[in-house]
Design goal:
Elements: H1 2-13, H2 15-24, H3 29-35, H4 44-53, E1 63-67, H5 73-82, E2 85-90, H6 93-102, E3 107-110, E4 125-129, H7 138-147, E5 153-161, H8 169-178, E6 181-188, H9 190-206, H10 208-215, H11 220-230, E7 242-251
Helix pairs in contact: 1-6, 2-3, 4-5, 9-11
Length: 252
């Protein structure tokens, strides 16, 4: 976990550069800000909020917990759609400093997913956008079940890939059951994710020389990511080897 924290501290230290790169993709400023949080389609916050709303249990805490909140912008939009208070956690101190600056109405802390500084049954919902798969453990799911109100939802986007050490969908189902969480649905988002990611990273790779010239050599690591995503180095592409799913479960 320490290695992951250091890696993401480095990533979030490049947030302004990543924002400028996203603007160079030709998207709006709002979408560019969200892209600094990883894969975010323009309608992603609305889709996640709508999915969570369908499974709300009537818990009156009004607290939405975001695990792996990053700079806080994605969770803030989901919380605003639901009328909830956002409480976010990330193991990157750099991410938390950004979240506190960008989302002053939220509550953000550095924490690991297996030890959350929250009381039992305090959350009306828990979300994790492209983050929990990095630390999917029995202890993390146990903590999610502990902080959720009874019958409250958990929504997780996760990846299954030959290039990542991730849980399979079967393992997810088994682990959710073991920790008192009832699987409600699994949506395969792979086709949409691959289409959007291929378009973004192919475009960046094709104009890599222009981007480095315009934004400076510090953007080169981000361009290299695009190369790996599409397999420009003649190895199999990360995109082709990876599937993305949206998992919804509720606490029993």
């Amino acid at each position: 976990m320490q290695l992951a924290a250091e890696t993401y501290d480095t990533v979030y230290a490049r947030t302004e550069l990543r924002y400028q790169l996203a603007l160079a993709d030709g998207v709006s400023a709002a979408t560019a800000s969200l892209r600094c949080s990883g894969f975010v389609a323009p309608d992603e916050p609305r889709r996640v909020a709508a999915a969570m709303r369908r499974h709300l249990s009537g818990c009156h805490s009004g607290v939405l917990v975001d695990l792996g909140c990053g700079a806080g912008l994605f969770g803030a939009q989901v919380a605003a759609n639901l009328g909830f208070q956002l409480t976010g956690f990330d193991f990157s101190g750099s991410a938390i400093r950004l979240a506190r600056a960008y989302v002053p109405g939220g509550v953000f802390s550095v924490a690991t997913f297996d030890r959350l500084p929250l009381r039992d049954a305090c959350a009306a919902g828990v979300m994790s956008h492209d983050a929990l798969y990095l630390a999917a453990t029995d202890a993390a799911l146990s903590e999610i079940a502990r902080v959720l109100c009874r019958r409250a939802p958990m929504i997780v986007s996760t990846y299954v890939s030959s290039k990542l050490q991730t849980w399979s969908l079967v393992t997810w189902q088994e682990k959710l059951h073991e920790h008192g969480l009832l699987l409600r649905s699994v949506s395969d988002d792979t086709r949409r994710w691959r289409r959007l990611m291929q378009r973004k990273h192919r475009a960046r790779w094709n104009k890599r020389h222009e981007l480095i010239s315009a934004l400076g050599p510090d953007v080169a690591p981000e361009i290299a990511v695009s190369g790996r995503m599409i397999g420009a180095d003649c190895e199999s592409s990360f995109i082709a080897a990876t599937s993305r799913f949206l998992i919804i479960a509720t606490r029993r």
